Amino acid sequence: MLNLNFALRDRRVGVAILAAFLSVAVLAPLLSPYDPHAMGVPYLSPSSAHWLGTNDIGQDILSELLYGARISLFIGITAAAIITLVGMMVGIVAGYLGGKTDWILMAICNVAMVLPSFPLAIVLAAYLGGGIKSLMISICLTAWSGTALVVRASVLQLRSAGFIRTLEAMGANSVRIMFWHIVPNISGLVLVKAALAVCSAMLAEAGLSFLGLGAETEKSWGAILHYAFFRNGVFNGYWWWYLPPVLCISLCITGFMLLGRSRRDSASEHEVRS
Amino acid sequence: MRFRHLALQMVKYTFVAWFVISLNFVLSRLVPGDPLIHLLGEADYYYLLLAEPAALEALREKYGLGDPLVQQYGSYLASSLRGDFGYSYQFARPVLELVLFRLRWTLLLVVPAVALGALLGGYLGAKAGWDRESAVGRHLTAVFILINSIPPYGLALLLLSLLAFWLGVLPVGGMQTGGLTGWAYIWDIGLHLVLPLSILTLYKTAYHFLIMQSLLDCIRREEYVLTAAAKGLSQEKILWRHGLRNALLPYIATICMQFGYAVAGALMLEIVFSWDGMGTLVYQAVLSKDFPVLQLSFLVISFCVIAMNLLADFLYAVLDPRLRGAYVES
Amino acid sequence: MIDMLRFDTLRVAFTQAQQPALDDFSLVIPAGAKTMIIGETGSGKSVLLLALLRLLPASASVSGQIWFEGKDLQSIPDEELRRLRGATFSYTPQSSGSSLNPLLTVGF
Question: ipTM more than 0.90?
Answer without folding.
Answer: no
